[in-house]
Amino acid sequence: MVDVTIEALKSVKSALADFKTETETVAARANAASQKIVDECRTCIANTQGEVERSKMTIERYEKDVDDLEQAIIDDSKELDRLKNLKTESKKNIAELDCLITDVRQQISLLQAQLSETEDEKTKSLIQEEIDELNSQMISLCDKKQKTQQLLEKIEKKSSELNQRIEVNKSKKSQTEILLEEEKRRFEQLSNKLSRQKYSFTKISDDLNEYVSIAKRFQSNSIDVAHSEASAVEQCIDSIDAYLITSI
Amino acid sequence: MGSEWIRRDTKDFEQSVVRLGDTISKASTLWCDKKYAELSNAVRNIAVDSKQLIEAGDKCCSQIDKFMSIAAEKY
Q1: A27: which of A71, A152, A216, A231 fits an S-S bond (Cβ 3.0–4.6 Å)?
Q2: Which helix (H) or strand (E) covers residue A161, if one does?
Q3: Nearest to A160 by CA among A68, A74, A76, A70
């Protein structure tokens, strides 16, 4: 009966010693875990903060793109209006030149008729000079007309290009505005996520401080208990050993 | 990740308390006197205190999990 009791005491002593060893690092482990978690949370928050900042930059870039496209549309529209006026003016010029050419052509025809009917050499010479002058005017007018027609073609080509560019820019602007709205929504969501993370982190910090504090208190108390109880058990073992020796 | 460190520590710690309690409890069949009652009472107090530590750890884990759940949100 006495031997069994000594075994019981020894197992208790051993269990107390093991417990003491196992709990000696409770506070240090809690502290290390707490620090790791705090670092990890800070990294997560920094990542979200980075995402928020990148989203903000994306929004600014989209806003600039929309403004630039809008300005390009305005500029091209103004240029298109200017070309429209120029086109009207050029058409008017061509019509006027056509009239002049017709008029000169008629004058030449009349003069050529007069020339064929005139026998007087001096008169013939004067008429011919006039015809030559009119022919020269005709060449000049035709040249002007050709140049104006070429200008009109250039205006039409340029107008077509501008119209096309305006449509492309309108489409780009519309797409960018959609992306901008999406990014604004994303920015709001990320900002909200960041706020919630920061709030959650303050709660984690409080809870971790409490956890570490309890761990320290527990470690101190339990080591004291384990130590004093192990000592008490040691004394019991010693007493029983002494009793057994006396009995023998 | 995150709460796993605390979960692992509190689990190890809980097992230490359980092992101690079991050993003391087993000893009761072979050791019945006032000193055992004192020892048993002291270990009971450790168990009560340990519950507080485990609960504090659980509270941390719960909060960390919430944080990580927010951190995992993709936009």
Answers
A1: A216
A2: helix A121-247
A3: A76
Optimal mutation site among B5, B17, B40, interface A, most CBs of chain A within 10 A? B5
Mutate to test the interface with B, among A47, A211, A228 (most CBs of B within 10 A): A211
Q: E strand or H helix at A24, and its extent?
A: none
Whether the Cβ atoms of residue B23 and residue A15 lie closer than 8 Å to each other: yes
Partner-chain contact B23 A11, CB within 8 Å: yes
B32: left (phi over 0), alpha (psi -120 to 50) or beta: beta
Q: Does B54 touch chain A (CB under 8 A)?
A: no
CB B64 within 8 A of CB A37: yes
pLDDT tens digits, residue range A207-227? 999 999 999 998 888 777 777
CA distance B56 to B63: 11
* Minimum Cα–Cα distance from A192: chain B residue: B70
The pLDDT tens digits for A153-203 are 999 999 999 999 999 999 999 999 999 999 999 999 999 999 999 999 999
Tell me phi and psi for residue A25, to 5 degrees. -105, 5
Task: Give CA separation, A57 vs A43, A46, A64, B28, in Å.
Answer: 21, 16, 10, 71
Q: Is the dihedral of CA A167, A168, A170, A174 positive or negative?
A: positive
* Contact across the interface for B19 and A19, Cβ inside 8 Å: yes
B59 close to A (CB below 8 A)? yes
CA B75 – CA A48 distance, rounded (Å) = 10
Backbone φ and ψ of A9, nearest 5°: -65, -40
pLDDT interval class at A92 (50, 70, 90): very high
- Which stretches of A166-232 are assigned E, i.e. beta strand? none
